[in-house]
Amino acid sequence: MFIRIAASVGTAALVVGAMLGIASPANAETNPNCSRVTQIGSTAYIKSGGTTIASVKQFKGCNKNWAYTYVWEGFRNSHSGTWWACSGISDGSGLRDYKCGGNHQKEVWSSGANTLSECTKAYGQLEWSNGEGSAATDQRC
Length: 141
Prior knowledge:
alpha+beta, four-stranded antiparallel sheet, 2 helices, 18% helix
């Protein structure tokens, strides 16, 4: 009986989470400039008030490093005003390959940095009318 109740509670929590837009971000991660990319390092998360609002990842492919920022559905649904996301590769001396999407663009790929022989991080930023947040992935060499 207890196992059945626990399973029902767990299922209900997943359904409620999905309805609120706080479940996993479910994104395509299809790079428009390089068809064969592989994620390197861990995913970083942009947060606002303890809530995750975007993911930041670093990829390699086509002899380049790529930064990728994905804005989560929960944030998109609750922010109808102006907001935009940006992505870039950090090589220790600054940002390279920094690119911002248009207003309400849910995913942004950097334009590709020739940094495969360097230690890099992906950097993502999200700005909206009354706030901003950013995150960087772990460094990969």
